[in-house]
Specification:
126 residues, alpha/beta, Transcription Regulator spoIIAA, 32% strand
């Protein structure tokens, strides 16, 4: 049985897009909801940076609750991918809507990010 714990949400900005963080062994599973756009990108990056500072082996972003993403949202994810790799962590995106996934396909970032249908698939990947 994997070890699970919840993240203390007090570390997040007041209008955070991050709804929940749970730890499964050394993997952080981050539930994101709302519009990942210019208006939220700085706070979103800061909140993700706080999670990356905990040095997970795997960062799993559950984007099922994301209703919209623009180029600044994508830029935020690219920056977090770079930070994750810098500490030796992998980063996985799961639960994307067709609309959000098409952004990654158009920009060819679907070849850069590890994208899975579910959190379980991401947690099982190496």
């Amino acid at each position: 049985m994997p070890f699970r714990r919840s993240w203390p949400m007090t570390n997040m900005s007041p209008d955070s897009l991050i709804q929940n963080v749970r730890w499964v062994d050394r993997s952080a599973v981050v539930e994101v909801a709302g519009e990942v756009n210019l208006a939220h990108s700085n706070a979103f990056q800061e909140d993700l940076a706080n999670i990356v500072a905990e040095k997970p082996q795997r960062l799993v972003l559950d984007l099922a609750g994301v209703t919209y993403m623009d180029s600044s949202g994508i830029a935020s994810l690219v920056k977090m991918l770079s930070r994750a790799k810098a500490i030796g962590a992998s980063m996985h995106l799961v639960g994307m809507s067709d609309r959000v996934r098409s952004l990654f396909e158009i920009t060819r970032l679907d070849h850069v990010f590890e994208i899975h249908a579910t959190c379980d698939e991401a947690l099982a990947s190496s």
